[in-house]
Amino acid sequence: MNPYTILNQTQCQRVSDGVILPLLSGCESATRQLVLVWPQLGDFDSLEYAWWLQREAKKLQGEGIVIRAVGIGNRDSGKRFCNYTGFPGDWLFVSPNAQLHQQLNLYPGLSLKLPGLSISLNTYLNLLLMCAGIGSPGTLAEVFRGYWGDSQAPQLLDDEEVVRGIPLPPIKGSFFRLAGGKGFQRPFELATLRLRNMTEVLSHWNTYVPNGAYLTQRGGTFLFDSQGKLLYEYRDCGLLGFAQNMSRPLSFLLD
């Protein structure tokens, strides 16, 4: 079945008001519809993707692109996610399970089952293995990119921007100039933002992850025109792999 048909028939809870609505409600007049099917809202990929969308929000709206996202969680997860990332609650929907992901044939993640372990423990074990790159291609390289820097990626923090909420003293954006200059992603710059996300999620784990059964589930990106024609799709194949071009995750929209 066409992804647009599946998404158009799916009803989920909107975070802003708790109303159950079709996922694509309010998108009818958009020139393009960007639909993001995220894993758990406490997943680092969901948080990082939302950061990039916030960074480019004015450009995307100027292009007439309407954004809808759905992540695994509940309304409390969604409200915490929006408060932290600034992602609009009107754009975000939540689903208690991975049924939509399964309908879209998105990668469920590593699913090894060791005898004697509960479903929950098996899921956590699979997540740890994926963090090590097993069943999660590209994950280790992406982790290292966060530390090494990336000359092909834009600068992530302005000089006057301050990173707080990490188990370190507040770090000013100008600090990263010492690690390599400016105008591109400097060493440790992305790793610091990921550390902030990790601290946020671990500090509110039960809110972000109300059901640990879907920790390994991956997501996908779908772009449609006003008639529902699929213009672009990307299906995640591992942790920290939410975009085809991780140096510039929204390049498929803005280039």
Automatic annotation (TrEMBL):
**At the top level of its lineage, which domain of life is listed?**
Bacteria
Any Pfam family the entry gives? AhpC-TSA_2
Q: Identify this protein by name.
A: Uncharacterized protein
Q: Which organism is it from?
A: Moorena producens PAL-8-15-08-1
User: Where is the organism placed in the taxonomic lineage, from the top?
Assistant: Bacteria, Bacillati, Cyanobacteriota, Cyanophyceae, Coleofasciculales
